[in-house]
Amino acid sequence: MGEPLEKNVILKDRPDEGPKAKVEVKTLDYIATHTNIPVSRVIRDWVDRDGRYFVLNARVRGQTLEEAWNSLSESQKVDVADQVCVDQSPCYPGLLFFELEPRGPFHSDQELWDALAVNLRQLPEQVLGNLKKRLPKCEPYVLTHCDLNLGNIMVRDGKVVGILYWEYAAFFPIWYDHASASFGFTDTDVERKRLLRERLRVHGEAHEDAKALWTDMCNLRQYPNLDEKGQETLEKLS
């Protein structure tokens, strides 16, 4: 006799069939077909008579990385970081635009810069021009999770067995998820991302130039009401 249904599946519902819901289902189907990234299989999705949207997924057995982190050995933590590094395969880009409004799709570095420049247009022309020069090469644009935090990575016996919640996924510059490892929200998240950055350097994928650009954009986002770091960045780029 099999296990109860609720142990094998997860049912998610949303008020309506919005864009984020469909992005996740399409992304999971794409990943399952074209990559080796461990994800939850979509069994089916549907809209009921009241317009509510439902998705039935196979359950991923394990713990979130947040739950398991303190029980992992140092070698297991390194192994998990390595798996996350190499599991990236060739929208809602909050890291770049500091908001979760949909953007893109982008088909070239120029298109991405033009979209970024809309939020930066209040900056002095020389500063804006120098920022543009610092934009790293973005190609290839790759499938990017955009919310790769401790609660979205499932592990079992020290191995990554699933990456969850792909509703913010989109094709972004190859350095996007790597640059997002520059900051953390909790002590555990900071430790995990520090280790991730170290392993990215080992794999030759640190993208420090992208991290530097993002830091400068963060420092200048409140222009002209800049704090000390913002003033330093403005002077550096003037």
What would your notes on this structure say?
- With 238 residues, the protein is an alpha+beta fold.
- The chain has two domains: 54 residues, Dodecin subunit-like (2-Layer Sandwich), CATH 3.30.1660; 175 residues, Aminoglycoside 3'-phosphotransferase, Chain: A, domain 2 (Alpha-Beta Complex).
- It is 42% helix and 16% strand.
- The protein contains ten helices and eight strands.
- Strand 2 and strand 3 form a beta hairpin.
- Helix 3 crosses helix 8 and helix 9 packs across helix 10.
- It is globular.
- It starts with 8 loop residues before the first strand and ends with a helix.
Explain briefly what this protein structure is:
By secondary structure, this protein is α+β, with helices and mostly antiparallel strands. It is 42% helix and 16% strand.
Which properties best describe this structure?
238 residues, Dodecin subunit-like, Aminoglycoside 3'-phosphotransferase, Chain: A, domain 2, three-stranded antiparallel β-sheet, 10 helices, Kinase-like domain-containing protein
SSE layout:
Elements: E1 9-14, H1 19-34, E2 42-47, E3 53-58, E4 63-64, H2 65-68, H3 74-86, H4 94-97, H5 109-120, H6 125-133, E5 141-144, E6 153-156, E7 159-163, E8 170-173, H7 176-179, H8 187-202, H9 208-220, H10 228-237
Antiparallel strand pairs: 1-3, 2-3, 4-6, 5-8, 6-7
Please tell me the overall pLDDT: 81
CATH class category name of the largest domain: Alpha Beta
For the record, the count of structural domains works out to 2
Content of β-strand: 15-25%
Give the overall shape: globular
Structural class, from helix and strand content? Answer: alpha+beta
| Tally of separate helices | 10
Sheet with most strands: 3 strands, antiparallel
The proportion of residues forming helix, as a percent range, comes to 40-55%
Low-confidence stretches: 86-92
